[in-house]
Specification:
The protein is mainly α. The relative contact order is 0.05. It has a domain of 38 residues.
Length: 84
């Protein structure tokens, strides 16, 4: 596996929680940052729905934040006739 060095300058409001979390978990800040970056990159590149992002137009503008609520409403609509 090829490795690359990346030097980052973090603002204090990011660095301090990183230090605290790393200390609590037994990692160095660098190790924890690497784990977080790897997890995020893998999550982003393994999204099975990524190819569909932006392919559907909608008048609903808050679906990103409210998708669970909207899905729940639709599920309830579908099962409601069957529960009476």
């Amino acid at each position: 596996m090829m490795r690359h060095e990346l030097i980052l300058q973090l603002p204090d409001e990011v660095y301090q929680p990183l230090i605290k979390t790393a200390s609590q978990s037994g990692y160095t800040p660098e190790q924890l940052a690497i784990h977080w970056l790897i997890a995020r990159v893998r999550q982003t590149h393994q999204d099975p729905l990524e190819e569909f992002i932006g392919s559907i137009s909608s008048k609903t503008t808050d679906w990103v934040d409210q998708h669970d609520a909207y899905l729940g409403q639709e599920i309830l609509k579908q099962i409601a006739p069957h529960t009476t």
